[in-house]
Specification:
Elements (H helix, E strand, L loop, with lengths): L2 H7 L2 H9 L12 E4 L3 E7 L11 H18 L1 H15 L2 E8 L2 E4 L13 H12 L6 H15 L1 H22 L24
Parallel strand pairs: 2-3
Antiparallel strand pairs: 1-2, 3-4
Length: 200
């Protein structure tokens, strides 16, 4: 099943309402963010959180957010497992969860798949440098680290690209299901156009 067919199978807003009726009202403040991929559906929950204390440092506030996410993750585990099973039967793919509190966001276990790529000497040297520095244990781990670093540095640009792709997919889907009535009109030749010579 393609991403386009998954998105048309269930309306995103209907799925958000479906989740909100099954999630505790004290858990989330807004409809969940839902991202649909070819092989996975990611559900991000915006947790209810008290207003930040102005006296806390940025590090202390982040620690509170992380602790809240971990607490809610454990509290909701049985419920999320049950809901994921229901959604898996619908989408026929994996369901992943994440939680957002304040400025902190944690994506729980998602699918990992091998990605084959060919790298030149310069790219391999970058990966080997990360391995030698202890940033990663293998080239594969170093490549994953590099992708995450790029995503973090260029998150706003990636969001714009994703939004543009979604719009293009919607236009394609609309045109695909729109039938034209009749045949396209013929274009009359201009007066100054010279007709091609007839074969002898």
């Amino acid at each position: 099943m393609t991403r386009e067919s998954k998105e048309t199978l269930v309306n995103r807003q209907e799925l958000q309402r479906w989740l909100q009726t099954r999630l505790p009202a004290s858990l989330v403040t807004t409809p969940p963010d839902i991202t649909i991929y070819d092989d996975e559906v990611v559900i991000m929950l915006q947790l209810t959180m008290e207003a930040p204390d102005a006296e806390l440092s940025e590090e202390q506030q982040q620690q509170l957010e992380q602790e809240l996410i971990e607490l809610r993750r454990e509290e909701t585990r049985p419920l999320r497992v049950r809901l994921a099973r229901e959604l898996q039967s619908l989408f026929k793919c994996a369901i992943a969860w994440g939680m957002r509190a304040g400025a902190s966001e944690v994506l729980f276990t998602t699918r990992t798949v091998p990605v084959m790529t060919r790298l030149g000497r310069v790219e391999r040297e970058v990966l080997d440098t990360l391995v030698s520095a202890g940033v990663a244990e293998t080239r594969s781990a170093a490549l994953a680290y590099t992708v995450r670093a790029f995503a973090s540095e260029h998150s706003e640009w990636l969001d714009e690209v994703r939004a543009a792709i979604i719009q293009v997919e919607r236009v394609r889907a609309r045109l695909k299901h729109t039938r034209r009535k009749g045949v396209p009109p013929t274009v009359a030749a201009e007066a100054d156009e010279v007709a091609p010579p007839k074969p002898n």
